[in-house]
Every structure is written in C-alpha cells, then in structure tokens.
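Let us practice reading a record.
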Amino acid sequence: MAAIVNAGDTESWKNAVISAINSTDKKINLGLIIRVAYSLMDEDFIDELYSDLQNQLPANLFAQFSQLIEEITKDISQKSKKPVLRIKSEDGSFFNLFDMRFEGH
C-alpha cells in the first residue's frame, strides 16, 4: 500500500517486492508489482532492487531472480503512458491516483 501512496518512493517498491517474495499468499502478484514499479521508476528501481537482493540471496537464487525480472520488464516501454489507478472521489467522479504523483500534488 505504501508503494501506491508514495509512487515515487523506491524503498516502498523494494519492500513491496521483498514482501511478495516472502509471502505465502497466492493472491499477491509479484510480476505486477515489478511491472508497475519499473514503469514508474525505470532502471533506478531495478538497480536498487538488485543491490539489495544481491546481498540477501545466494548467488544462484539471485541469478534466477534477476532473469525473472528481466523477463518481466523486457516488453515495458519507458515511453508508454503512465500507469492508471482510478479512485472514486466523494462527488462520484473518478481520478487517476498517479496523476497526483506526476503533477507534483
């Protein structure tokens, strides 16, 4: 949740990924978390995530995980539109939560 509220906070997104890795909840979609974080922060997110995970995982698991991340992010264009997460406001209209981040609100 913190990653969505603070969309530009790399630490929150890294924590979301690590929590998803450690979770036994089948409803958590690790690939989706990585795709959204990468869409928002590009290679900066991947670099920081790799740095943290390289220190925490055995080399063979880190290699497998980095291959998985490369597979998940390979088709994401950084020139694509920003992500959309519509929230219903009190007046019944919808707004994109990520517009607030990109417009500096």
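A brief commentary: The chain has a mean pLDDT of 82.
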